[in-house]
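Researcher: Sequence recovery benchmark, item below. Answer with residues only.
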């Protein structure tokens, strides 16, 4: 009987796969960021995770990436699904939040999107 249970558990494990990249973060708190005020440490506390990577731009501003990709598939049912959350936040040389540069798989209300992405991008393009 133990062999039957073991074989059943092994079969179930072999018919499903799950892969995760990055660390889960609280994207709902993105709307709480304040342009020119929020620091990286405050952002990490709001999102509940450290950034996955960073990039320094020509101006000295730093882009920090938070990304969480979760993929599940089942050989048994033939179904697979992938969920992606990706955000790149830019911080000024003084260490304060400048704008959201990239956003995928995260819903922001229209006002927050305008305040955090569109208006800062327009100001940046005008320089």
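Model:
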């Amino acid at each position: 009987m133990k062999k039957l249970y073991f074989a059943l558990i092994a079969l179930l494990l072999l018919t499903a796969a799950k892969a995760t990249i990055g660390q889960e973060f609280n994207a709902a708190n993105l709307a709480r960021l304040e342009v020119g005020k929020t620091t990286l440490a405050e952002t990490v506390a709001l999102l509940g995770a450290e950034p996955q990577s960073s990039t320094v731009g020509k101006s000295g501003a730093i882009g920090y990436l938070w990304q969480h990709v979760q993929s599940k598939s089942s050989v048994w049912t033939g179904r697979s699904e992938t969920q992606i959350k990706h955000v790149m936040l830019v911080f000024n040389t003084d260490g304060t939040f400048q704008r959201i540069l990239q956003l995928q798989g995260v819903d922001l209300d229209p006002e927050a999107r305008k305040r955090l992405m569109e208006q800062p991008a327009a100001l940046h393009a005008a320089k």
